[in-house]
């Protein structure tokens, strides 16, 4: 049996670097939380870089299709309430269905920050996958695009009908400001 420092010594600097990197990354993520517009502009820039990469190499359509399906799944979570009245038998904690009900703010199943973070990671991972030539599967991309559009329309139609049925709006319009009587 060897001493404790013989095998663990080379791994300690790597573990320390990983811990420091993780801590610094979390620090900057926490600092970016209140800057919603800037975060989304950064994500838009990452998405445009990905789109330009796919356009430039004229390939990786299967990766783009998978990315589209993943983003659609995230969008459904973003537009859905945390507690779905259709799926759970609730003990009085449902969405308000008439004007006399108590106001309950809309709580998303997928909060905005996690939605942003997941989409950004997805675009970065998909961008990195475009450098692996084995993943450039030759497909007829218009069929994938048409299928994704049909999937998007049907999914959003179902989601909008759910919003109408249970009378909720997943958007914050902001605090109403009253200017007084005119």
Automatic annotation (TrEMBL):
Instruction: State whether keyword Membrane applies.
Output: yes
Q: Major location, coarse class?
A: membrane
An example of a Gene Ontology BP annotation on this entry? protein retention in ER lumen
The UniProt transmembrane annotation reads: 62-80, 115-133, 139-156
User: Know the name of this protein?
Assistant: Protein RER1
Q: Which InterPro entries match?
A: Rer1
Protein function: Involved in the retrieval of endoplasmic reticulum membrane proteins from the early Golgi compartment.
Protein localization:
Membrane
Q: How does it sit in the membrane?
A: Multi-pass membrane protein
Q: Which UniProt keywords apply?
A: Membrane, Transmembrane, Transmembrane helix
- Record keyword Cytoplasm present: no
User: Which family does the record claim for this protein?
Assistant: Belongs to the RER1 family.
GO cellular component terms, alphabetically, are: endoplasmic reticulum; Golgi membrane
Pfam families annotated for this entry?
Answer: Rer1
